[in-house]
Amino acid sequence: MQIQKRKKLYISDVMIYLTAVLLMLLCLLPLLNVVATSFSSSAAATAGKVGILPVGFTLNAYRKILDDQQFWRSFMISVIRVVLGTILNLVLVITMAYPLSKSRREFHSQGIYIKFVLFAMLFNGGMVPLFMVVNKLGLLNSIWALILPGAVGVGNVILLMNFFRSVPKSLEEAAEIDGANPLQILINIFLPASKPCLATICLFSIVGHWNDYFSGILYISKTSNYPLQTYIQLISAAFDLSKVTDIEKLKQYLSISTRTLNSAKIVISVIPLLIIYPALQKYFTTGLVVGAVKE
């Protein structure tokens, strides 16, 4: 019986590992192909000869992007947007979730505000009214047009509100006995206990701000003020070769195609997230699961 049990466990383990490897390959192989294409020659990429290794290795697609001064300006705009947007998101989400996590005995109007939050999550005014509001506030072509419309993430408010409710009530009562006011209780009790949830919200905010390109198209009309994602989707591999007199430059342009350039854009755009994600990964699963369960 013991031998049969061990054999069943062994087979199930093998099946789990095989499934995990298969899923990993399904995710990893397209990414490797994109990286390889970005380093391949135009002819190889166009002919579909690129697999997971570069063919006709060249860095010209990256040179085309990195030699562009506007690229670095847009990069810094995106960095500033991520920093300001994430800080503002966290401050507003925390100050909104904390009172909503209280019982109706402590916060009499809690039910009204909860309904307001749920309504805002399910319905919105639409793109045109939002554009009109941003326009009337004089925010067009400023970085605040990219940050303020999404400053309060309703889903994040609900996530953090449920996490706050899971903090033992006895900790808050002990702090009140020691003379702490609500702000001190929030800073010294709730925030340290909510690090996994805050890290998850922080990651959501960073990814949302970094990957968003449509807000730049909608609210920014000057190319010099574009965030990175909006700018790189405008970079084209179409060159006017009749104006190129430098032979080396001409060779560089001929070795770039739309496919290799787009692949280089994808690689460059995900590098900052690949750097940030491992630092927050250990909190991600805990924050997502614990905050979603209400006992």
Descriptive overview:
The protein contains 15 helices and no strands. It is mainly α. α4 packs antiparallel against α11 and α11 packs antiparallel against α15. The two termini are 40 Å apart. The model has no long low-confidence stretch (mean pLDDT 82).
Task: Give me some keywords for this one.
295 residues; mainly alpha; MetI-like fold; 15 helices; transmembrane; MetI-like; transport
Q: How are the secondary structure elements laid out?
A:
Elements: H1 2-38, H2 42-47, H3 60-66, H4 69-100, H5 110-122, H6 127-136, H7 144-147, H8 154-165, H9 169-177, H10 182-193, H11 195-211, H12 214-219, H13 228-232, H14 247-254, H15 258-290
Helix pairs in contact: 1-15, 3-15, 4-8, 4-11, 11-15
Query: What is the β-strand count?
Result: 0
What is the CATH class designation of the largest domain? Mainly Alpha
Radius of gyration: 25 Å
What can be said about the biggest beta sheet?
none
- Whole-number average pLDDT? 82
CATH superfamily placement of the largest domain:
MetI-like
